[in-house]
Amino acid sequence: MSEPTHRRRWLTICAITASAGLVAIPASGASGGNGSPFGVRALKQLAAERAQSVGALSPKVKAEDGDDGNEADEIAEGADQYAEARTSPGIVAPGAYGAAWSSLSALPRTGGSWRNVTNLPYDSDDSRYRDIDSNSSGGSGNVTGRMAAMAADDDGYVYAGSAGGGVWRSKRGGGHWKPISDKLPSQSTGALALDPGGRLWLGTGEANTNADAYLGSGVYVLSDPHHGTFSSRSRVGGDQLESTTIRQLRFGGGKVWAATSEGVWSHSTKTLKGAWKLEYAPNPEYLPGGSKAADDSAAYKNITNDIAIDPKDPSKVILAVGWRSGDDYNGFFAKDSKGTWTRITSGFGDLPTDADNVGTVTFARSADGSRYYAIDQSPEQLASNPDSGLEGIYSAASPFGPWTKVADYKQLAADNSALTTAGYMPGVQAWYNQFLTVDPANPKHVYAGLEEVYESKDGGSTWSTVGPYWNFTFPCWSIDPAEQTGDCNQTTHSDQHGVAIGRYHGKSFVYVGNDGGAYKRPVNGSQDASGHATDWTSLNDGTIDTLQYYSVGIGNDLDHGGVSVTGGLQDNGQSVLRSNDTVMGSNFGGDGGDTLTDPTNGCNIAEEYVYLAVQITQNCAVNNGSWITDASKATSYNVAPADNATSEARFIAPLATDAKDSNTWIAGGRHVWVQTHGYAIRSGSEWKSAYDLGAGRTATAVAASGGKVYAAWCGPCNDQGFARGISVGNADGTGWHDISLPATGTVPNRYLSGFAVDPKDSDHVFLAVNGFSRHWTEGPGAGVGHVFESTDGGTTWKDISANLPDVPTNSAIVTPNGGLAVATDLGVVYRAPGHTKWQRIGSLPAVAVLQLKLSPDGTTLYAASHGRGIYSVKVRDCD
Fold first, then answer.
1. Nearest residue to 320 (alpha-carbon basis) of 238, 231, 207, 236
2. What whole-number distance in Å separates Cα of residue 794 and Cα of residue 598?
3. Burial of 154 (0-12, 13-18, 19+ CB in 10 A)
4. How far is CA 583 from CA 119, 572, 579, 589, 699, in A?
């Protein structure tokens, strides 16, 4: 692993650990014909990596050591790096995204409008794609992007709140979705809740403490959720909850309570105007305006997770407070006789009250108030136990206890879980995966979500794994496409976040939200002999597109005409959409990173997992799974450069082809790697190091044209001595040199995220710079500007940002007519040829766009958004 990560106050996120889930491994590790699916070995690999970090650090995070808990595995590191790009070299002040959204909304618009390319079902079990690096046949079925919160009523209406793609409504018990929050300045959902009067409350700012979760703009309420849509006018209270994350909204005593990243707040549910009241913040000096607000640890000092309110006496309230990696303030709090919030130290029974064992907590209570349940993640377990961070699941007759432990990770693993591998057992990500709900008709019937979904019908005495992580580990599993997933039943996607129970046509259903979208089953559904549910239904029917793309690739579809579109996704592998498809398939599992697609043949694809773990296929990875018994029938190949093995590459590392020679590829890690065999490459040894950027440096962007190569790098890449630079040379290894970029100067000392080379002149290049400018970023040399131009091969640069909003920019591309399109964290902007001012392309919601690509004929621009799928627009319409 690279150097330890560091804590900082981030605008984009609450904390630095990432979403994890279905994990792919290189092809070389999967071929062998022993009959085991690759996924099982992937879990063992991840478990081993995690075990290496256990015991390395104290379970408690201390301000003086500046460490975040250092979960030394790839998912945490990837999360840190996503945030580094937006925050380094220092601290970003609250309000930056709101200001950027206002500026972007005020820009003039180009002609044309975006077309959603990926608004159709995405089948993660598509039987066409069962090659060695696919999770197809695992049992998740149709998927979409991460769903952070769910709500449902008794009239068949279901509401799904996505991580980065807004809130969606179904009036048919799930499916046939419509977006209802596109007008808001934040599309990141933290909490959804229906109050007793039927109003829908939305807390923005995802609070899963993962890196691609953005802060929100407050709480909104929808009086008529069956028909209305959220608007900025529906915000509750003032701006007190801007730039926070909101994990839970609870109701009691005429108030709504919000558990946020900056304390617990309350507001009247009757009068929606007026300021929110700060009920409790454990360390108020770290809040905005406080004496320590600028401290690097400020973002971690007031995290609250949930609120339990006694319905019989709403004045009795329990607060669950704490940072998942541990701090002195972690614990449970209630008001004493003097009305002061005081730590609970006794009387809780089995539920711990000490700071070391209270981390992320979720409460649930029965409809009649007779039963309470809680999940507790332990900072001490997280730091010392390689198997799980779960302290336990608990039950009580009152939120004040005494609580009885009704499950731990060993018990859940024994209940036919798919997670029985040492180092990766139930609750290993309990800081990230948690939900609880109780059947309104039965106080002893409870659903719990961690990585998997568990059900108990006797108050927690016994449990069934009704939604296993996947089916690969079970005897019923078969890769045979004729049997789809063999005798196994469909399960849910892994990593659970949101849950709700509602009724449709008089029948009760439980709705779960996870890293693969939304699923449902009857509340009193059926199980097989192993306790696995037999009746899950995926609600990801293609009308809800919240897919979180890192990349996009387009090539001609030689078999069917038109083009084939592919892209790498957070926790949903690589999607493949052929021109005649009505359903997208997945030919690659885990986290899909950067991708290369042959413009002349869309089935020639290079797919990156993480750290430059590049796989190559020349048939779209079409495979019926026969590689299980005959390794020679694999159609994907591991071609990772050497920096993959040494982890000297970014989590999502840059790949590019030479604009004038599609057989010449550039990959960036510590080295600038070049290979000249195009899609015929079969081994990582075919990459040659053209340039060594230096120890501690890793490439953040690469581009090439006519043999001239540009490479941007950072190192260190966090705010502890952040440095960046540009190196330029030739693909044959000659002429390499570092461009002089002073710490303060024209090009800011921030993350350099993308190049766009003029196809007519390789010395004419544009540079996209991430983060926020000096007005928002407190760091050495943060500078101003986001787009820069060089006409002398990168030797000198000119700021051409002009009226561009101050928002992180992620990539750029020169259009055939000489225009320049730039992808930002809030959409896409365009500068027409011969102009100096920027315009906004179309009217996408406030969603991050990470990569732009052109169609093979150059007439269409494709945008990979991290929360709303892939979009396209005709280039001619932009002028």
1. 207
2. 28
3. middle
4. 10, 15, 10, 17, 35
Tokens, residue 487: 């005798």
Mean pLDDT, range 581-587, rounded to an integer: 96
DSSP 12: S
Taking a C-beta distance cutoff of 8 angstroms, is the pair 154, 503 a contact?
Answer: yes
Q: Which of 294, 214, 221 is nearest to 258 (CA)?
A: 221
Query: Is residue 153 a contact partner of residue 577, using CB atoms and an 8 Å limit?
Result: no
Question: Structure pTM?
Answer: 0.92
Q: Is the pLDDT of residue 865 over 50?
A: yes
CB atoms closer than 10 angstroms to residue 179? 21
State the pLDDT at residue 97: 83
The model's confidence at residue 742, banded by pLDDT at 50, 70 and 90, is confident
Q: Could you tell me which of 645, 697, 651, 646 has the C-alpha nearest to residue 670?
A: 697
Give the relative orientation of helices 38-53 and 74-87 as an angle to the nearest 10 degrees: 70
Residue 686: φ, ψ to 5°: -80, -10
DSSP 56: S
Q: What is the 3-state secondary structure (H, E, C) of 122-179?
A: EECCCCCECCCCCCCCCCCCECCCCEEEEEECCCCCEEEEECCCCEEEECCCCCCCEE
Candidates 639, 638, 632, 635; CA nearest to 623 is: 635
Determine contact, residues 570/18, Cβ cutoff 8 Å.
no
Tokens standing for 802? 């002009």
pLDDT > 90 fraction of the chain, expressed in percent and rounded: 80
Answer yes or no: are the C-beta atoms of 143 and 124 closer than 8 Å.
yes
**Angstrom distances, CA of residue 487 to CA of 139, 416, 475, 476:** 11, 16, 9, 5
pLDDT at 243: 85
Structural Rg of the chain based on CA atoms: 25
Q: How distant is the alpha carbon of residue 792 from its chain centre? A: 38
- DSSP-derived pairing of the beta strands 809-814 and 798-799: unpaired
Secondary structure (H, E, C), 480-507: CHHHCCCCCCCCCCCCEEEEEEEEECCE
Strands 507-514 and 91-92: unpaired
Residues contacting residue 464 through CB under 8 Å, at least 6 positions apart: 415, 416, 454, 455, 456, 527, 531, 532
Q: What's the token pair of residue 114? A: 């975006």
Measured from the Cβ of residue 233, the count of other Cβ atoms closer than 10 Å reads 7
The two tokens of residue 165 are 């793609």
The answer to whether 488 and 139 have CB atoms below 8 angstroms apart is: yes
Task: Look at strands 584-588 and 122-123 and give their pairing.
Answer: parallel
